[in-house]
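Hi C.,

You asked whether I'd gotten around to modeling the 117-residue construct. I have! Everything is below, sequence then structure, no commentary in between.
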Amino acid sequence: MNSVLRSITPMIPTGGSISDALKFFTEQMGFSISWQSGGGAGVHRGDVGFTLVENSNREWADNTSFSIGVSDLDSLYAEYKDIPAKVGRLEMKFWGRREFHMILPSGVCLQFFQQDK
């Protein structure tokens, strides 16, 4: 019998201290802390989770990007558009997907798009 893959939890660099990253993810982005130990922590919001790794390697961060499907893109954009990150415009891309991106303080890029079930 083949095993079914059920989820993925990417490891992303914090760009600084784990405490600063946790503060950003919880206070600015609405994530909750799943666990924390030393220089790492797990955060989640809905069905999306990340493992934050205390690491300031800018090359790693600047080359890390994730697309995240959401149930209400307009609402999430309204929530995130003024947080202390580089938040792009909500727009239709030439590849046919309506989305916006956000560059976190660490340099990691998150792209959010409407995903209907």
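If it helps when you're writing up: Helices lie at 18-28, 58-62, 73-80.

Thanks,
B.
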